[in-house]
Design brief:
The protein has about 425 residues and is of the alpha/beta class. The protein has three domains: about 5-170, 3-Layer(aba) Sandwich (Rossmann fold); about 175-310, no CATH class; about 335-410, Rna Polymerase Sigma Factor, Chain: A (Orthogonal Bundle). The chain contains 18 helices and eleven strands. The chain has helices at about 5-20, 35-45, 60-70, 85-90, 100-110, 125-135, 145-160, 170-180, 205-210, 210-215, 225-230, 235-250, 285-295, 310, 325-335, 340-355, 360-380, 390-405; strands spanning about 25-30, 50-55, 75-80, 95-100, 115-120, 140, 165, 185-195, 255-260, 265-270, 275-280. It has a seven-stranded parallel β-sheet with strand order 4-3-2-1-5-6-7, sandwiched between helices. Strands 9-8-10-11 form a four-stranded mixed β-sheet, with helices on one face. Helix 7 packs antiparallel against helix 18. The longest helix is centred in the C-terminal third of the chain and has 20 residues, at about 390-405. The protein is globular and about 55 Å long. Bound molecules: nicotinamide-adenine-dinucleotide and magnesium ion. Magnesium ion (MG) binds near residues 169, 170 and 171.
Length: about 425
């Protein structure tokens, strides 16, 4: 029996306290990008639930300062050292500490946090994300290049540190949810879907000459330029197969891609009894991001809800390796293992950059990646990296090689590689 108001109030306030635990501390790496901005959108809607200890970005000081102010970050780090003064000026009148350079981004990653959101693009995200993992921070991983560049040592470090690696990439997040804690030995297949991108129905000839604008015109997702170009050639799906292999410990033979232009079903798992579970959601990255931010609880998001009757038709088709050779290259790298995915990733980053600079044609990207992989297999660069540091060394070597191989190409959309 309640003995009086005081007791009941006491109990109520204890319950209220249990309902409102201390805010979840977040570090946001890649805060000014597409994933970064979607994350900020969610954090801003729930200021009681989250507090942001640090944000980091590449070179846009104004944008980083805006984000830091919006989320009330304690520390803002910009990779480009020459942007320090601009960042400092843009943060004037706040208590937000500004810093610049490679070490500063790592310092941001190591700030006190319950969850580090890894949303820097490319292998530039490996070092800070790895630093966070090794220091025992849980990580929400949008940056798939971490696992393509350094999958084995990266997952080993996560296991050794006993941290949680939450998949933020929509397909992997869907699979994570579809798995529902099942025994991994009962998994028969794991399937990630691909929208097919802007060139899904184009001929190989037309794809080979696609312009930068055409490659950046993704039908379903608004993303940063690198992943958008990767998606147009289906290299993104190849990187995601490698990502899935490491995240879920599933061999290449059990992984599949199916093209699904509506981007409603993101990932599927089939089990030994023939059951198939699927992760579905409207194509809005805030849903997988929210899943990671709230995990194991769920946030309330403003994302569009699925109206299946309105969508009416979901279609699926097999991927075409002839028209999308990058998917084949990534699959081959996954099967070969060792350092080949590291090589593939580095060569691809430099080739995508060259395409975006209009120095090579669209099909020049996959041709360059193929050449880089062949060269690395011949000279031992593709040997398995023992550590994340090893992987970063290979990454560096391949980047330099790719840069000089592509340097001769003048800024013209017409130039193709041999
Ligand atoms: P983006 O280009 O929009 O943003 C990249 C962010 O990284 C920016 O904040 C940029 O300033 C920062 N950055 C770049 N180089 C840096 C460096 N050297 N040091 C520190 N910061 C640096 O890219 P995005 O689309 O947000 O993608 C980010 C990552 O998430 C990629 O790995 C991508 O594959 C993955 N991802 C993105 C989406 C999406 O919808 N955008 C979906 C799934 C996965
Ligand atoms: Mg994805």
């Amino acid at each position: 029996m309640a003995s009086g108001n005081g007791h009941i109030q006491g109990r109520d306030s204890a319950q209220a306290q249990a309902r409102t635990p201390r805010p979840r501390r977040i570090v946001l790496l890649g805060a000014t990008g597409s994933i970064g901005r979607s994350t900020v959108d969610l954090l801003e809607r729930d200021p009681e639930r989250f507090s942001v200890s640090a944000v980091a970005g590449g070179r846009d000081a104004e944008a980083l300062a805006r984000v830091a102010r919006a989320v009330g970050a304690e520390f803002a780090a910009i990779r480009d050292e020459s942007a320090y003064d601009a960042l400092k000026a843009a943060l004037a009148g706040t208590n937000i500490q500004a810093a610049a350079g490679r070490e500063a981004v790592i310092e941001a990653a190591l700030r006190d946090a319950d969850l580090v959101v890894s949303a820097i693009v490319g292998a530039a995200g490996v070092e800070p994300t790895y630093a966070a993992l090794a220091a025992g921070r849980d990580v929400a991983l949008a940056n798939k290049e971490c696992l393509v560049c350094a999958g084995v040592p990266f997952m080993r470090a996560a296991a050794a540190a006993g941290v949680r690696l939450l998949p933020m990439d929509s397909e992997h997040n869907a699979i994570f949810q579809a798995l529902g804690g099942e025994d991994p030995s009962r998994i028969e297949r794991m399937i990630i879907t691909a929208s097919g991108g802007p060139f899904r129905t184009w001929s190989r000839e037309r794809i080979s000459e696609a312009s930068v604008e055409e490659a950046l015109n993704h039908p379903n997702w608004a993303m940063g330029p690198k992943i958008t170009v990767d998606s147009a050639g289906m290299m993104n799906k190849g990187l995601e197969l490698i990502e899935a292999h490491h995240l879920f410990g599933v061999p290449a033979e059990k992984l599949d891609v199916v093209v699904h232009p509506q981007s409603i079903v993101h990932g599927l798992v089939s089990f030994s009894d023939g059951s198939v579970t699927a992760g579905m959601a409207a194509p809005d990255m805030r849903t997988p991001i929210a899943h990671c931010l709230g995990y194991p609880d769920r946030l309330a998001t403003p994302t569009p809800r699925l109206d299946l009757a309105k969508i009416a038709t979901l279609t699926f088709e097999a991927p075409d390796f002839e028209r999308f050779p990058a998917l084949r290259l990534a699959l081959d790298a996954l099967r070969a293992g060792g350092g080949l995915p590291t090589v593939l990733n580095a060569a691809n980053e430099i080739a995508v950059e060259a395409f975006l600079d209009r120095r090579i044609s669209f099909d020049g990207i996959s041709r360059h990646v193929a050449e880089a992989c062949e060269a690395a297999l011949r000279d031992g660069t593709a040997n398995a990296p023992e550590s994340v540091e090893d992987a970063l060394t290979v990454d560096h070597i391949v980047r330099e090689r790719s840069r000089s191989a592509l340097a001769g190409h003048a800024a013209s959309g017409m130039v193709t590689l041999q």
